[in-house]
Design a protein that fits this description.
It contains 2 helices and 5 strands; from the N terminus they run αβββββα. The longest helix has 19 residues. By secondary structure, the protein is an alpha+beta fold. Strand 4 and strand 5 form a beta hairpin. The radius of gyration is 16 Å and the shape is elongated. The chain has one domain.
Length: 97
């Protein structure tokens, strides 16, 4: 899942990491989260800290600020193992009228 953002410096410092890690955990997937970082011409400062997070919520790579990128190979076996430990789809129910 890709979650591009432009969190401000203030809200990013308070919430960015925990929200991205939560998205990975609750969706049992890898998250690629590019986030603008630096000073903008209008005076706004964005947080940066683009990251890749695994389905367990572990940050695999993070680029704090400035121009750059993060990169990581996706471990499909890890993804399958994490999903197998949380078989949530087996417990879904469909209600039709």
């Amino acid at each position: 899942m890709i979650v591009p953002s432009a969190f401000t410096a203030e809200t990013g410092a308070a919430h960015w990491e925990v929200l991205i890690r939560a998205r990975a955990i609750e969706n049992l997937c890898y998250i690629i989260a590019p986030n603008q970082g630096g000073f903008h011409i209008n005076g706004r400062k964005t947080f940066g800290h683009s990251m890749i997070v695994d389905p367990w919520g572990v940050i695999l790579d993070c680029y704090k600020t400035g121009a750059g990128f993060v990169s990581r190979e996706i471990d499909v076996e890890r993804l399958q193992k994490v999903r197998a430990s949380f078989p949530v789809l087996e417990h879904r129910h469909f209600f039709c009228k």
